[in-house]
Amino acid sequence: MIRIGYLGPQGTFSECAAEKYAAGQEAELIPFSSLKEIGLAVRDGYLDEGIMPVENSNEGAVNLTLDLLAHELNELMIRGEIILAIKHHLLAHSGTKKEEISRILSHPQPLAQCRDFIAKEFSGVSVSEAASTAEAAKFVSRGDRTWAAIGTGRAAALNNLVVLIPDLDVPGENTTRFIVLGRSDCAPGPRNKTSLIVSVTDRPGALYLLLKEFAVCGINLTRIESRPAKTKLGDYLFFIDLAGHREEPNIAVALASVKAQAAFFRILGSYPACVESLTKAAKTVPSIADLRADIDIIDGQIVELLARRTNLVKQIGALKTSNRIRDPRREQELTARLKALAEEKGFDSTVLENIYRLLFDHYVALQTNKNPHQHP
User: Fold this and answer.
1) Is domain 89-165 in CATH 3.40.190.10, yes or no?
2) Each residue of 297-340: pLDDT tens digit?
């Protein structure tokens, strides 16, 4: 029997997601009081898997889950997902009438999802946050008869409440996506999804070029979300979901290219995808104009990097105290290393060697205050 943790107590939407995921398995479902505790219990082996909400169709990402994945649960991987249709109900004491409600409690996400309903039907009523929808129901059951909670029908039954108003009016299709965390991800299957975290270097077009790697390989991105990297202002982490398994050849090629460009790169896992979460993957064939736009960006980056290299060379020249400007051993070592890198990346090593010979001559001339275009 496997042990699966979820955000409790009993009666939460997380429990509903866990029950949906565990259907047909021999599983023990264990409630936890926080998402971090779930992750640590999986990491330490007390749980086999943990269920966490990651995004809602109306309110977007669950930032706490993203931050835990990025900064605290580095040993864990995503090995599954659940898409749960969310039906909110207004729960109250038996016999309480709608017009008597003076306070509504729930988790911040349901309160945000139901804000229009509350404003329309309960204008002026006090709204309070709880740790979960089940906790809100518990507070109401022990509190004033004029209090109400937004939660599940199961939460009502567990806390001796009734459903005062079923299926609260929420804009659009209200669904929440949950992820399943484990100590490993899953082997390739017929329908997979891969999640990763990346950050880009501080240079023009960096994110564009990184994302283009997926388009060139015909890979469909199903979600992109950003969060502060918590290093300095302006640094962001990008959470990317894509259709397919990380071991598929075209995806492996794209991920290797992305990793080579990224300042930070971590695969969160490959796992079976819910049908509801995948759109049809479009094979994108870049046009000549698209490819030339990429080349224009790269050319600009090359010039920028050469200018930065030139500035460093000038600084080194100012620090040299002897008349010996040229360092053949340094040039030889650098050329050998770069030629090996060129071969690894698929660039002609002879062409690269010729380029760097020109650069070495140019930089030696700069350090000896000679114009490289003039000849004695």
Assistant:
1) yes
2) 888 888 888 998 999 988 888 887 777 788 889 999 999 999 99
